[in-house]
Recover the amino acids of this structure.
């Protein structure tokens, strides 16, 4: 498994931007797909975005499409989530996750991710 550490969360106002980072260690980062999920209070964890190992293949949840951008830097073993035009409904704990080997890049099923970070809180006020 891989160790994942998120950073970059915090307080924002509606319309603001934040960038989350997730630093990976422990296995060959560049060959695994990565993803971001989020969990709001009282709700189930939901998929946000995923990126293939090369950084070319991207999938987004409809709720963030056009506002959030996932990217990765394989030289730094880091995946990012740029969040623009934030809304109060984006408030959640955001988790970085690493896909199991061999899983298709487009999978958004959390059971296809075998390593998770501890999460970083994002709070958006109106």
């Amino acid at each position: 498994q891989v160790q994942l550490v998120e950073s970059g969360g915090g307080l924002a106002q509606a319309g603001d931007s934040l960038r989350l980072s997730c630093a990976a260690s422990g296995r060959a980062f560049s060959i695994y797909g990565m993803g971001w999920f989020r969990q709001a209070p009282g709700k189930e964890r939901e998929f946000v975005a995923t990126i293939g190992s090369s950084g070319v293949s991207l999938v987004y949840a409809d709720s963030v499409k056009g506002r959030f951008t996932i990217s990765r830097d394989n030289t730094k073993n880091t995946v990012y989530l740029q969040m623009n035009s934030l809304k109060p409904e984006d408030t959640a704990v955001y988790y970085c996750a690493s896909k199991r080997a061999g899983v298709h890049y487009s999978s958004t099923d959390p059971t296809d991710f075998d390593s998770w970070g501890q999460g970083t809180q994002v709070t958006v006020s109106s």
About this structure: The mean pLDDT is 96. Residues 42 and 87 are 18 Å apart (CA to CA). The longest strand covers residues 18-25.
